[in-house]
Design brief:
Pfam families: Response_reg (PF00072), Trans_reg_C (PF00486)
Number of domains: 2
Number of strands: 12
InterPro entries: CheY-like_superfamily, OmpR/PhoB-type_DNA-bd, Sig_transdc_resp-reg_receiver, WalR-like, WH-like_DNA-bd_sf
Radius of gyration: 19 Å
CATH architecture of the largest domain: 3-Layer(aba) Sandwich
Shape: elongated
Order of helices and strands: EHEHEHEHEHEEEEHEHHEE
Strand content: 15-25%
Distance between the termini: 18 Å
Number of helices: 8
Protein name: Stage 0 sporulation protein A homolog
Keywords: DNA-binding, Phosphoprotein, Transcription, Transcription regulation
CATH topology of the largest domain: Rossmann fold
CATH class of the largest domain: Alpha Beta
Helix content: 40-55%
CATH superfamily of the largest domain: Response regulator
Length: 243
């Protein structure tokens, strides 16, 4: 797999040097930006495949960078920040970040996060080439064109909200989606944030997907944060193997 070009957005020279030296040692191509406005310009001009983003930038906050980049690009964004509170992580994930690494960090952890992101990029490229209108995950099959959902050979009867929730989770399989992200995508940004209602809809959807103890557990709850769709082998014969 060819290594992607990485945009490093960091104004602290010591941290920037650590990151770029690590990238160079492992044969990654990279470019750098020391503030948010330059980062957005570089992202638009050079089309990097991954962004490593500090939040505490000298001109605009990194959260604003994420929001602006997300208006035209879906490239993976890994936040690298000294902000370690859950509220900061949730805000970054809600804005569209794909991962969050807290300073101080180890070189090994940074490289591991990059390997995971590279695998996701490869899957995204494969999906784009295949252009399949059907999503398959374990025994679950979503026929987007027909608007139908199947669990094994059985068609599931979902409400419109349940179907939208399932499609949103499927399109982001393997990624933790925060409560706010889900509610804004399902009901719109002006909808009153009511996590209790979301939990009710998610519970009814889960009951339809996970009918007995032997069923694959498709939806994982991240308490206080949100939900994630687990990814399984397409064959229903291997019910324990997440990949």
């Amino acid at each position: 797999m060819n290594k992607p070009r990485i945009l490093v957005v960091e104004d602290d020279n010591s941290v920037k040097n650590l990151i770029t030296t690590t990238l160079k040692a492992h044969d990654y191509h990279f470019l750098t930006a020391e503030n948010g406005e330059v980062a957005i310009l570089e992202a638009a001009s050079h089309n990097p495949e991954i962004m490593l983003l500090d939040l505490g930038l000298p001109d605009i906050d990194g959260i604003e960078v994420i929001k602006r980049v997300r208006t035209w690009s879906q490239m993976p964004i890994i936040v690298i920040s000294a902000r370690s509170e859950d509220v900061d992580k949730i805000e970054a994930l809600d804005a569209g970040a794909d991962d969050y690494l807290t300073k101080p960090f180890s070189v090994e952890e940074l490289l591991a996060r990059l390997r995971v992101t590279r695998r996701r990029l490869q899957m995204m490229k494969s999906d784009a080439l295949n252009q399949s209108a059907v999503f398959v995950n374990g025994d679950l099959r979503i026929d987007y064109a027909a608007g139908c959902v199947y669990l094994g050979e059985e068609e599931l009867h979902l409400t419109p909200i349940e179907y939208k929730l399932l499609c949103l989770l499927a399109q982001n399989a393997g990624r933790v989606l925060t409560h706010t992200f889900i509610m804004e995508n399902i009901w719109g940004s002006n909808w009153e944030k009511d996590i209790a209602s979301l939990r009710v809809f998610m519970a009814t959807l889960r009951r339809k997907l996970e009918k007995n103890p032997q069923s694959l557990q498709y939806i994982q709850t991240h308490v206080g944060v949100g939900y994630r769709m687990m990814k399984f082998e397409e064959s229903s014969e291997n019910k324990k193997g997440e990949y």
